[in-house]
Amino acid sequence: MDTVRRERTDAGDAGHEGDAGGAAPVRTGAAGERRERTDAARNRAKILAAAEGIVAAQGVRGLSMAEVAAAAGVGVGTLYRRFGDRSGLAYALIDAREREFQTAFVQGPPPLGPGAEPAERARAFLRALTDRTVEQLDLLLMAETAAPLARFGGAYDAHHAHLSMLIGQARPGVDAAGLADALMAPLAAPLLAHRLRECGVEVERVKAALDDLLSGVIGG
């Protein structure tokens, strides 16, 4: 699943300098540009925080552009210019959390980040990925079922490459890529939602099963 969706700028598709019949755009000074970027970042953070609160309280179905705008204290037009539509806003929520998660396993503290043994890091990664999936389960369920291969792509590739690396380090010579796919399969959003919501399985049971699978793959 590719979670990265480019946002539209507040400026939209304004005319370029030198367009026939158009005046050159007025340029702001460096201080003005920095202030605009700071304001835009602050608005984005407010919007995403408001949207997260609504999803947490009402689920994805309750994600309304008008309600998010009201909660964030911005105009509805700002949301549409930045995110395009409700779906774009949902993907922005996924992307923001995914960036935090990737930062944690690439450069965060051990055992999730560098500094621990590969087997220990792999175990921590699968447990953290479980929590990350459960945290945004409704959003990921929507994203992963949007198309037949929607689960695969940007975020999946990053997770898969990282887990494959750890498996290869812990047990050189095995099919690390194939084993990484097998270990990540139980965390597909539709399957996880079914197990947790329809079968009443506890999250800790999912993690324990992944621990056992990992032990079978790399030992220990």
From TrEMBL:
Limits of the HTH tetR-type domain: 41-101
DNA-binding region positions on the chain: 64-83
Residue ranges, compositional bias (Basic and acidic residues): 1-19
Keywords of this entry: DNA-binding
Region described as Disordered: spans on this chain: 1-39
Signal peptide range in chain numbering: none
PANTHER family given in the database record: HTH-TYPE TRANSCRIPTIONAL REGULATOR RUTR, POSSIBLE TRANSCRIPTIONAL REGULATORY PROTEIN (PROBABLY TETR-FAMILY)
Protein known as: TetR/AcrR family transcriptional regulator
Organism: Nonomuraea antimicrobica
Record lineage: Bacteria, Bacillati, Actinomycetota, Actinomycetes, Streptosporangiales
